[in-house]
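Milestone M4 deliverable, item 7.
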Amino acid sequence: MDFAASDAPLQASEQAKAPGVLTIPESIGGITISYNLPGIDKGLKLTGPVIAQIFMGNITMWNDPAIANLNSGVNLPAQKILIAHRADGSGTTYAFTDYLSKVYPQWKTDVGQGKVVPWPVGTGAPGNAGVANIIKTTPYACGYVELAYAYPKQHDICICSKC
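Output delivered:
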Protein backbone atom coordinates (compact mmCIF):
# COMPACT_ATOMS: atom_id res chain seq x y z
CA MET A 1 0.00 0.00 0.00
CA ASP A 2 1.31 3.46 -0.91
CA PHE A 3 0.56 6.72 0.90
CA ALA A 4 0.95 10.32 -0.21
CA ALA A 5 0.00 13.67 1.23
CA SER A 6 -0.78 17.20 0.08
CA ASP A 7 -2.63 20.22 1.42
CA ALA A 8 -4.86 20.13 -1.67
CA PRO A 9 -7.66 17.61 -2.25
CA LEU A 10 -7.67 15.66 -5.50
CA GLN A 11 -9.72 17.27 -8.25
CA ALA A 12 -12.20 15.12 -10.17
CA SER A 13 -9.83 14.97 -13.17
CA GLU A 14 -7.00 13.76 -10.91
CA GLN A 15 -9.19 11.11 -9.30
CA ALA A 16 -10.21 9.84 -12.76
CA LYS A 17 -6.52 9.25 -13.58
CA ALA A 18 -6.06 7.21 -10.39
CA PRO A 19 -8.95 4.76 -10.06
CA GLY A 20 -9.21 3.13 -6.67
CA VAL A 21 -7.41 5.95 -4.86
CA LEU A 22 -8.88 6.70 -1.48
CA THR A 23 -8.75 10.33 -0.36
CA ILE A 24 -8.81 10.85 3.39
CA PRO A 25 -9.21 14.48 4.49
CA GLU A 26 -6.68 15.23 7.18
CA SER A 27 -5.40 18.68 7.94
CA ILE A 28 -3.83 21.68 6.30
CA GLY A 29 -0.42 22.76 7.57
CA GLY A 30 0.24 26.23 8.86
CA ILE A 31 1.26 28.80 6.28
CA THR A 32 3.11 31.96 7.23
CA ILE A 33 3.65 35.30 5.60
CA SER A 34 7.40 35.76 5.91
CA TYR A 35 9.46 38.79 5.05
CA ASN A 36 12.96 40.20 5.20
CA LEU A 37 12.73 43.74 6.57
CA PRO A 38 16.12 45.04 7.74
CA GLY A 39 15.75 47.04 10.93
CA ILE A 40 12.31 45.67 11.84
CA ASP A 41 12.74 43.38 14.84
CA LYS A 42 9.11 42.59 15.67
CA GLY A 43 6.35 41.00 13.65
CA LEU A 44 4.11 43.16 11.50
CA LYS A 45 0.35 43.16 11.75
CA LEU A 46 -1.27 42.42 8.38
CA THR A 47 -4.91 41.71 7.57
CA GLY A 48 -6.13 39.27 4.95
CA PRO A 49 -7.19 42.00 2.52
CA VAL A 50 -3.82 43.77 2.90
CA ILE A 51 -1.95 40.50 2.27
CA ALA A 52 -4.07 39.87 -0.84
CA GLN A 53 -3.36 43.37 -2.16
CA ILE A 54 0.37 42.90 -1.56
CA PHE A 55 0.38 39.65 -3.55
CA MET A 56 -1.76 41.24 -6.28
CA GLY A 57 0.72 44.09 -6.64
CA ASN A 58 -1.78 46.75 -5.49
CA ILE A 59 0.29 47.53 -2.39
CA THR A 60 3.88 47.85 -3.57
CA MET A 61 5.77 49.71 -0.83
CA TRP A 62 6.49 48.65 2.75
CA ASN A 63 5.48 52.09 4.03
CA ASP A 64 2.11 52.05 2.22
CA PRO A 65 -0.61 53.60 4.43
CA ALA A 66 -2.52 50.29 4.48
CA ILE A 67 0.46 48.63 6.22
CA ALA A 68 1.49 51.67 8.27
CA ASN A 69 -2.01 52.12 9.72
CA LEU A 70 -1.90 48.56 11.08
CA ASN A 71 1.58 49.04 12.59
CA SER A 72 1.57 52.25 14.58
CA GLY A 73 5.02 53.21 15.83
CA VAL A 74 6.90 50.99 13.38
CA ASN A 75 9.28 52.87 11.10
CA LEU A 76 8.50 51.11 7.83
CA PRO A 77 11.02 51.57 5.03
CA ALA A 78 10.17 53.39 1.81
CA GLN A 79 11.20 50.31 -0.16
CA LYS A 80 9.47 48.24 -2.81
CA ILE A 81 7.96 44.94 -1.63
CA LEU A 82 9.62 42.10 -3.55
CA ILE A 83 7.19 39.18 -3.79
CA ALA A 84 8.30 35.54 -3.74
CA HIS A 85 5.85 32.73 -4.53
CA ARG A 86 5.86 29.08 -5.49
CA ALA A 87 6.70 28.36 -9.12
CA ASP A 88 5.57 24.75 -8.88
CA GLY A 89 2.14 23.32 -8.16
CA SER A 90 1.68 22.85 -4.44
CA GLY A 91 -0.78 22.26 -1.66
CA THR A 92 0.73 25.28 0.09
CA THR A 93 -0.27 27.49 -2.84
CA TYR A 94 -3.69 25.83 -2.93
CA ALA A 95 -4.36 26.62 0.74
CA PHE A 96 -2.88 30.14 0.55
CA THR A 97 -4.86 31.15 -2.54
CA ASP A 98 -8.00 29.60 -1.07
CA TYR A 99 -7.56 31.92 1.93
CA LEU A 100 -6.91 34.97 -0.27
CA SER A 101 -10.00 34.14 -2.34
CA LYS A 102 -12.12 34.13 0.81
CA VAL A 103 -10.81 37.35 2.37
CA TYR A 104 -10.54 39.47 -0.78
CA PRO A 105 -13.15 38.93 -3.53
CA GLN A 106 -11.00 40.62 -6.19
CA TRP A 107 -8.35 37.92 -5.65
CA LYS A 108 -10.90 35.21 -6.39
CA THR A 109 -12.04 37.02 -9.53
CA ASP A 110 -8.66 38.13 -10.90
CA VAL A 111 -6.25 35.39 -9.79
CA GLY A 112 -8.24 32.48 -8.43
CA GLN A 113 -7.45 29.54 -6.22
CA GLY A 114 -5.45 26.42 -7.02
CA LYS A 115 -2.17 24.57 -6.79
CA VAL A 116 -0.92 26.80 -9.62
CA VAL A 117 -2.24 30.31 -10.26
CA PRO A 118 -1.28 33.15 -12.62
CA TRP A 119 0.63 35.28 -10.10
CA PRO A 120 0.21 38.97 -10.98
CA VAL A 121 3.62 39.91 -9.54
CA GLY A 122 6.72 38.39 -8.05
CA THR A 123 9.41 35.82 -8.54
CA GLY A 124 8.67 32.11 -8.47
CA ALA A 125 10.83 29.47 -6.85
CA PRO A 126 10.47 25.69 -6.53
CA GLY A 127 9.22 24.43 -3.19
CA ASN A 128 8.97 26.05 0.21
CA ALA A 129 12.76 25.90 0.44
CA GLY A 130 13.11 27.95 -2.74
CA VAL A 131 10.69 30.64 -1.58
CA ALA A 132 12.31 30.72 1.88
CA ASN A 133 15.72 31.14 0.27
CA ILE A 134 14.55 34.13 -1.79
CA ILE A 135 13.13 35.76 1.32
CA LYS A 136 16.21 35.05 3.41
CA THR A 137 18.65 36.40 0.83
CA THR A 138 16.64 39.34 -0.54
CA PRO A 139 16.12 42.43 1.59
CA TYR A 140 12.51 43.69 1.43
CA ALA A 141 11.22 40.35 0.11
CA CYS A 142 7.88 38.92 1.20
CA GLY A 143 6.43 35.48 0.52
CA TYR A 144 4.40 32.61 1.92
CA VAL A 145 5.91 29.40 3.24
CA GLU A 146 4.85 26.40 5.26
CA LEU A 147 5.40 27.06 8.96
CA ALA A 148 8.38 24.72 9.32
CA TYR A 149 10.38 26.93 6.93
CA ALA A 150 9.90 30.01 9.10
CA TYR A 151 11.44 28.67 12.31
CA PRO A 152 15.16 27.80 12.36
CA LYS A 153 14.81 25.13 15.05
CA GLN A 154 12.38 23.21 12.86
CA HIS A 155 14.28 23.47 9.59
CA ASP A 156 17.72 24.34 8.31
CA ILE A 157 16.52 27.49 6.54
CA CYS A 158 15.85 30.52 8.70
CA ILE A 159 14.20 33.58 7.24
CA CYS A 160 14.24 35.74 10.32
CA SER A 161 16.59 38.71 10.43
CA LYS A 162 18.31 37.51 13.62
CA CYS A 163 20.18 34.48 12.25
